[in-house]
Amino acid sequence: MTEGAPSAAVVSVGNELLFGETVDTNAAWLGRELTTLGIPVVRRYTVGDVAEDIAWAVREATEMTDLVMVTGGLGPTPDDLTKPTVAVEFDLALTRDDLMLETLKARYGSGGHDEVPLAARVQAEIPEGSTVLENPEGTAPGILLRTRNATVVLLPGVPREMRAIVKGALRPHLEAMRPVHAERVWHHVTHTTGIVESRLTEQVEARMAELPGEIRTPVGVAYLPDVYGVDLRFSASGVSRDEARARIAPLLDAIDEVVAPYRFECASGDLAEAVSTELRNRGMKMATAESCTGGLIAKRITDRPGSSEVFAGGVVAYSNRVKVEQLGVRVEDIERFGAVSEAVAHQLAGGVAALLHADVGIGVTGVAGPSGGSVEKPVGTIWIGTSVRGEVETFLGHYSGDRETVRARAGQAALASVYRRLLNASKG
Amino acid sequence: MTEGAPSAAVVSVGNELLFGETVDTNAAWLGRELTTLGIPVVRRYTVGDVAEDIAWAVREATEMTDLVMVTGGLGPTPDDLTKPTVAVEFDLALTRDDLMLETLKARYGSGGHDEVPLAARVQAEIPEGSTVLENPEGTAPGILLRTRNATVVLLPGVPREMRAIVKGALRPHLEAMRPVHAERVWHHVTHTTGIVESRLTEQVEARMAELPGEIRTPVGVAYLPDVYGVDLRFSASGVSRDEARARIAPLLDAIDEVVAPYRFECASGDLAEAVSTELRNRGMKMATAESCTGGLIAKRITDRPGSSEVFAGGVVAYSNRVKVEQLGVRVEDIERFGAVSEAVAHQLAGGVAALLHADVGIGVTGVAGPSGGSVEKPVGTIWIGTSVRGEVETFLGHYSGDRETVRARAGQAALASVYRRLLNASKG
Q1: Nearest to B82, CA basis, from B66, B70, B90
Q2: Which of A74, A259, B99, B307 is 20 to 30 Å from B365 at the Cα level?
Q3: Neighbour count for residue B9 (Cβ, 10 Å)
Q4: Which of B143, B177, B211 is the last residue of a domain?
Q5: Domain range enclosing B238
Q6: In chain A, what is the straight-line distance between the N-terminal and C-terminal CA atoms, in Å?
Q7: Per the structure, how many domains does chain A have?
């Protein structure tokens, strides 16, 4: 965060959040929204429907940041304590807003009720001197008030209502706060797969240590791992995205050699998208023959709209009978080498491409666990075959983790193999 | 919260949380887990990868609660600051744990690497006097330490790893903290599918309104919807699970008639498990022919260990050519009725059961979107066929939502249909 730029805090109110009955997607949404506006969220507080706790969090947040977004506890029921608590905390009387009362009357009237319920009339009371933010989606309006240190915004907890207020009535207030010519932080993300976080970190950090300070210093690097791979997030500040990009570019160039063997490119960060794009660019279709991954690769490819252009179909060859009868795997090879073997992966990949008239075939056979492992072929042993225009390659992977993780990693490795082969074929 | 009972705080660490790139599901999961153990979470803090902010939150939390769970910032990279920051905050030296170094060496060794990367060696350093909590899913172990006021637990941010540690090595420590003879809240969950939340709520609440207070009052009812259905969660307090069960049972009996048509039973709440159990009990195997769901049903069934006993295999019949050549769908029916039609769903279900020698077949064909819809067959139009021992039934579903949601709902509806048919066949 640049010195002098405004910062924000989010206070989420509700027992259901603490008990874990509700996942706080509001806080994440506000984080993205405010970051984009150049008002980064630097802290979040989550408290229950308890007046002292709400008061503490809001007080703390106004002392630490310029903008405090409070979500939840704004409805008409007795456990909605946000408004009265904030009023007491900042010594503001609650007064009835006649215009809002009329709006509420109209809204309840339109719902077929004759008069505004008592509980809802409470919603027409607002702290003196505050601004009402219209809620086009519900009855609880947002409220904006200014304390000595900060701007405090009270918002309902229902995501749809909260978002409508932020994008609507609150928007001009946020625009007015954002620094016009100030720098903000921009990100560039590079996706990688096929290398573990610790090793990637070591290699990237070693390369960066050799670089002059003027390349290294302006850029922050974060390593974001998940089961599929590691995202590298580069952050730099700038008045514009282009300015930040210009600061990040020399570092990207300098570490390119280290990252390139594992990098893939696509907007979503999903390797299935990157593979689909490469297939589409070449006018090619893919088919899958999956044993232990059981349809997982087909699902990932067809998760994407328009997948019929690049996906011919697949066979979930869970039993040996299906492998032999449908895909032409040789019985004698299964008997000799086992279903989890290089020969079977080879024939699955080639067989499914031929059967479904596809340019590219994937064959996966392995031990996903938790049972079925042996000394020679422990859980996590997976043979993968890829066929590109009739030429089959195979490799053996050992994937750690539970069944779900082993399957996810094996599917990712198969897609990564197809991706590299398609890219290399273009180069050659 | 009972007076004197222990309370907990959760501190979530990571810029990606503040920026909203990641939704904090860990905090919700911990909230549920700790509530179940009788150690309610009373506050949550979310801070970025900034040492002072981490220190502030942990210090604050230890002053307010008995148990502080810190997630994230525990990996091997330079932006992982949790461990050194907490060590400094509580004035504890970091010392190398030789046993853990050996474990890490073994883990990296088994991955085919010769030595432990420098970055990962950092993970073998722990604050003096703290307890290492084994991480069966990754390299960053959990760490438990006791401060003057509270117990502090450091956990990795990767959900799978965090959960494994809490359910494994941390469990006895949490059990030791919980109040032995106090009443706590117990839950009973009934899974339903095939009815929308508002309708289920209306029917259950109407039935409950007729019940005497002594049946209704001791039990809290929550409706927890997701894309697959609605879970009904019944809560009652009791010293033991049996005592709470005895309070919940009369209410369950009273609403049984309303819920039974939609209920399914299994430990995980995943209908694929319930279907697998029914197939296994009958010695039957299933096969799937999926067009628009693209392998999603096969994946869900094979997500479960031991699925080879109940799953013969599947065909992802994405193109008409695969439908005709592999599954025997009649070309003239596709031409006359279209690929999304009752006739095609019927032939897919029957065809795949015959092809793969299965007792049960599922056929799904529809428009998942976002494109491909028409006035007659808008996005969300899905024909589903189920074949049980050669007898095929079909039904038409209209599912709302984006592509992912439509596919998920269609897959669930197909499984629900098989589940009901298996149960009804046993009764008849």
Answers
A1: B70
A2: B307
A3: 27
A4: B177
A5: 184-264
A6: 46
A7: 3
**Is residue A1 in some structural domain?**
no
Cβ–Cβ below 8 Å for A369 and B305? yes
Q: Is the pLDDT of residue A4 over 70?
A: no
User: Looking at the complex, does the CB of residue B115 fall below 8 Å from at least one CB of chain A?
Assistant: no
Other beta carbons within 10 angstroms of residue B28's beta carbon come to 22
> pLDDT for A387-396, tens place per residue?
999 999 999 9
Could you tell me if A62 and A118 lie in one domain?
A: yes
Note whether B379 and B281 are same-domain residues: yes
Q: Do B295 and B409 fall into the same domain? A: yes
Same domain, residue pair B334 and B401: yes
ipTM of the complex: 0.74
CATH label of the domain that carries residue A254? 3.30.70.2860
pLDDT tens track for A205-231: 999 999 999 999 999 898 888 899 999
Cα three-residue angle B343-B284-B271, rounded to 5 degrees: 75
Q: Do A315 and B315 touch (CB under 8 A)?
A: yes
- A266-289: average pLDDT: 96
Q: What is the rounded CA–CA span in Å between residue B82 and residue B49?
A: 8
Do A190 and A331 lie in a common domain? Answer: no
Chain B partners of A42 at a C-beta cutoff of 8 Å?
A: 18, 47-48, 50, 53
Q: Which three-class secondary structure string do you get for B30-83?
A: HHHHHHHCCCCEEEEEEECCCHHHHHHHHHHHHHHCCEEEEECCCCCCCCCCHH
- Which pLDDT value is given to residue A106? 73
At A171, which CATH number?
3.40.980.10
Kindly calculate the radius of gyration of chain B based on its CA atoms and give it in whole angstroms.
26
B15 touches chain A (CB under 8 A): yes
Cα–Cα–Cα angle for B280, B282, B285, nearest 5°? Answer: 60
- Same-domain status, A227 and A283: no
- Between B350 and A158, the more confident residue is B350
Q: Domain ends where: B264, B282, B308? A: B264
